[in-house]
Write a structure and sequence with these properties.
By secondary structure, this protein is an alpha/beta fold. The protein has 43 helices and 19 strands. The protein is elongated, with a radius of gyration of 37 Å. The two termini are 64 Å apart.
Amino acid sequence: MEPYKGLRPYEEQDKDNFFGREAEKQILIDKILTNKLTLLFAASGVGKSSLLQAAVMPQLKDPAGENIDVIYHKEWFANPEADLKQTLVDYFQARGVNDKLDTSLPLPAFLHFCTIFTNEPLVIILDQFEEFFNYQRHDKDFKPFIKQLAEAVLDRNSPTVFVFSMREDFALELNAFKPELPTLLFNNFYRLEKLSRENAKKAIAAPLEPTGFTYESGLLDILLDDLSRREQQDRFGKTADLLDAPPFVEPPHLQIVCMQLWQLAQDHSDKQITIAVYQEQGQATSILKNYFVNQIEQLSHVEKQLASNIFNYLVNKHGTKIAYPLNELTELLRIDEPVLANTLDKLEQIRILRKQSRQQILWYELYHDVFSKIIYDWNKKYKVSQYNEVLLLVKNFQLLQFSRVEKKIVSLVFQNIIIKHGNQEGISVKGLLKLLPLNEHILLAKILYKLEHAKILRKRLWQKIEWYELYHEIFFKTIYEWNETYRTRQPIKKLGIAMGATIFGGTLLFVGYDGWNNANSYYLNLSLKTGITDTIEIYQGKTDSFDFFEQTKYLAETNYSRADIEVDKLFQQKQIEDVEYLNDELIATFPLTERIQAYWENGDIDKVLSLSSAIITDYDNNLSYKIINYLAEFRSVKSIEKLGELLPEKNIDLKMRIIYALGTSQAPVQVITPLLLPFLEDENNSIRQITIEMLGQLGNYEIIKQLIPLLKDSESSIRISVVSALSEIDNSEVIKSLLELLQEPEWDIRQNVIEALGKLGRDEAIKPLVELLKIPELPIRWEILEALEKLDNVKTIKLLLELIKEPSLSFPVHQNIMAALTQLDSDEIFKLSIEFLNSPNLEIRQSSIEALGNLGNTDAVKPLIKLLTDSNSSIRKNTVIALKQLEDITAVKPLIELLNDPNLSVRNSVLGVLSKLGGVEVVIVPTDQCSSN
């Protein structure tokens, strides 16, 4: 068995080989089983799908564990509703459920119907949910599906629970659900972090144990140091070593490195992965860097060129992968499908791409998000190298000096090697000799030598015969066009020679100058009509020349197209002074926002900063906002410091945008903090609030403690903002300061303090919060109870039990505490609920009946059956509902007797319970007992 999966996600069958996520698994399972909706967020490549499939799902399904059904769905490309329903149909058919599932039902009803065949609850995991927004945002079914899915989540009568799993950088897309799920959407979420050092060590060492292989002593620590250092550098750049950041390891990097080391160790008789081998491979950084390069190097030159064009569509500059069907890629790349499919399949075989069949159409996408940036960078460098290679070949060809007779032979050679559509057919020397008269055979040998030496042609032996072919496939188009032009112009040239004899002397200098110009000039070309070619191309020559020597010719395509150019700067032909500064020439024609991005990618930081200073002004806020976001996204010290310099004096909105951009830029804390702290004293409260929020997000106590004095600020909005910021820091001084605020006269401040204390989870908060519950007219009782649920169960239950027994306690307080204790689920609350069944207070009795139903303890069935004869109809009805929740068959007979109850509502409730409990007794109920219903 292979100990490491590489970039393949772990699946259910890999559960015994999946390590390092034990705590995360249990936390997530607890959240799923106690909430209607759970959001699972993580950065790309952290391992959400592996955690769900190899850890969470097996335990949920395990008969010795939770023993419930789980539906796993991750396809969002076609019809989201139909595909989700089909996933459920396939699941139940595989389990032998032969009942026909009516997929024409609305989604909420369909899911509810499916629960008939499952243990409760039915868990529905919607993985890679960000792809729903990628592929469906502009589809007509986008909003209807959101509405139906939200209705299913809100359906409390349906024993279904949902998990939305998605990349955290797409989290804001969930705002599309807010109109339908205004209070539930973000109530319960879990952010999966990268592997801690300890968990990464388990993920490396544990899978290797069954194989008999081991890591040399000390190698694990070296490996973990290198992997965590790389992760820090990815997050913080060159300043990572200056920060005291927690060490994390990215699972894809761990898998690639360990898989490579495992493969290299297969021939070692001592079954040990050694430090020497690790160092020979260049350690983690080189192994990761070379992984993709080694894979792509397996392709031929033509396949690499085609792969480069494919990557133009499958990954964008923001590192996001995009799936495309084969037929669309064929049209976009203008290449025959068999040729394209062959290269795509090779990319799949080396696990760069993934192929999937969706509704009988082949789709391709990147195998893993971890490749996104690597591929984008490789593609950019590859295109530059291709351009340079074409330029070199063109110059080599131009340097060759051929006479008129030699040009004729050169044309004949090319004519027999190249065919029109950019393919080549090699030709033997023997075949060429047959095409020429005997007196030109020596001349042919001389020409072939020149072309081979200039790397225009390549000689090879096949069946002991010398063959020639083009040295480089990318030279096809240039050679073909030269040859076609030469052959077309020969008759014209012959006529020109006869006429030119009379005017040769007067035009010699002009022609020479024109030739020199064309040999040393370049221009950009863009077709006037869209649809012919929208790519900007490089030509050699002078745009206004006569080109007597046929030097004007196509050289290569750039990476830019018509869409990149500002409308008023579009051109058909544009002369460029120096081809080495091609990027600068083109970037100068871009729209302002794209120009800044392009300058940054081109490494022209000074131009970025200079242009940003000119754009960020009071005159155009929208444009200024875009540039501010760019500078923040660049995350360099220079761009962040430039943002600090550009803070305006009077434009509040612009100032707030810059502060927000600074706080969310993920730049080093020591760079951001000095820029933000002065705004804590700003005269504008909105500025102070957003500054507090941004400082809170940094999560650094040394920074946060400067906010504590602001808890006494005269403005309540400032105090609330500080409370929210402090809720990110688990520190005794913070807890003490928050507890003091519980005496605040303003309830909205108290509410925020209570939520913060619950979030921090410190035991010191339990007693003060319980004391608050005693206040009779308490407007935030539920908030207190919700906070207590997050704190230590034992202490909380003890204090709440003492409080609920106080005779003077008002019923609203009693009811709220009862509901909270039910959530905490202890034996004490069960006993107490039984005692309260005899309370003289009708409301307390009703509350106790409801609690017993929610607790799910069947020991409550007998005491509840006694209440079916209670004189109060509301008591009888609530008892019936509680018995329905307990689902005990012994309640059937007493419930049948209640079908003669004088209260219609009670009889209807009884019928609903009996239909769920079933049993022979229900079937033989006399008709006259049910007729009144």
